[in-house]
């Protein structure tokens, strides 16, 4: 009887994870560039479902990405959203810290950026991200 319950729970969890994976892509590009220039800068956002701070930061990042064009734009930046519940290593590292924003350096290593206040405007977030890449 206990084995049946464990099997049912495992099946339910598995089905939930598959459904969640279908609903939430692990990679989404917020770049709005229409040029043929390849994306050269990358941000990674560590997040998880049901995290209101994570959702708020995603919205602010989207707004910052769509603000303007020209030298003060983030058109060549891609954002990869990683669900920490899909990787035990990410979960151990960031379970008490999310949302965590990191930039990928030219050598492929990630550098965690200072936490952005939820009260910052999209304009200030854009400026901070541009400064992080300069």
UniProtKB/TrEMBL annotation:
Transmembrane segments: none annotated. Coiled coil: none annotated. SUPFAM superfamilies: Thioredoxin-like. Keywords: Electron transport, Transport. It holds the Pfam family Glrx-like. InterPro entries: Glutaredoxin-like, Glutaredoxin-like_YDR286C, Thioredoxin-like_sf. Belongs to the glutaredoxin family. This is Glutaredoxin-like protein. It comes from Arabidopsis thaliana (Mouse-ear cress). The lineage of its organism: Eukaryota, Viridiplantae, Streptophyta, Embryophyta, Tracheophyta.
């Amino acid at each position: 009887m206990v084995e049946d319950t464990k099997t049912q729970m495992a099946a339910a969890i598995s089905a939930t994870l598959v459904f969640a994976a279908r609903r939430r892509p692990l990679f989404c590009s917020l770049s709005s560039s229409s040029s043929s220039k390849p994306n050269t800068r990358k941000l990674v956002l560590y997040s998880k479902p049901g995290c209101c701070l994570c959702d708020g930061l995603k919205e602010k990042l989207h707004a910052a990405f769509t603000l303007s064009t020209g030298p003060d734009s983030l058109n060549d930046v891609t954002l990869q959203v990683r669900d920490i519940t899909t990787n035990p290593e990410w979960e151990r590292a960031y379970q008490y810290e999310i949302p965590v924003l990191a930039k990928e350096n030219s050598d492929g290593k990630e550098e965690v950026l200072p936490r952005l206040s939820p009260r910052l405007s999209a304009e200030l977030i854009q400026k901070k991200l541009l400064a992080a890449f300069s």
